[in-house]
Amino acid sequence: MNYGVQYLTDSERKALQVAYDEHGRDAYFWQTYKDLEEVARARTGDSRIKVANEMARAAAKIGANERPLYL
Question: What is the pTM of this model?
Answer without folding.
Answer: 0.81
